[in-house]
Amino acid sequence: MLLENMSYVEVEAYLIEKDTILIPVGSTEQHSPYGLLGTDFITAEAVAREAGRRLDILVAPTINYGMAQHHMGFKGTVTLSPLTMTAFIKDITDSFLYHGFKRIIFINGHGGNIEPIKNAFLQLKYENKKGIFEVISWFLLPEVQEIEKDIFEDKNGLHATPSEVSITKLLRKEAFKTKPTEKKEVVRNKSYSPLSRDEFKKLYPDGRMESAPWLAKEKYGKLIMEEAVRAVMNRVREIMKIKLL
Length: 245
Ligand code: NI
Hints:
binds nickel (II) ion, four-stranded parallel sheet, alpha/beta, Rossmann fold
């Protein structure tokens, strides 16, 4: 069930029965020469929509931009400032609250979004707003990380991972005709976080973070996506059982 295809009359009817909405959130940011700039919103959207379909839960339009300041050293990346992202997420959450949604769950595809999203939730609670606000980052769920480890061993890494690239290969096959496939070195660096755009580029000159995206395959994308959908559904089901105060 997609919000963008409904009328307000249908949303009114939905709210008589249910109070949950999923909101996919990603980023438009570099994913090395191997991956797509849209990777994080393409994956989050696919996982959220499939979970929503199976659970018969409403899915909001995807947020395609996120907090990606550390990737700004690479062309095509777009970022919201951390404070803008927090304000943006807060306003979206507040709009759904106003209409009567009580369980507002962001399905997230990008690590840099987590803290601004949580800050938005904190701000809403500071304003004494009632409701359950959650962010589920599909790539951090233990079930997903387990299958990634089975397939890619220690080569999944932290960014431009073969896992997320595999899912986009499954969903956007055509876009990979122009992407490289050759192997490179996987470098592991001890460093600190957060990094500025200049620090990031110094540490990760081609945009990969300890990953081997050339290992990506459509068939892995299918397996990982299925695991991600199932794991997200389990979390959403748990949230739907929580008693509201
Ligand atoms: Ni990503």
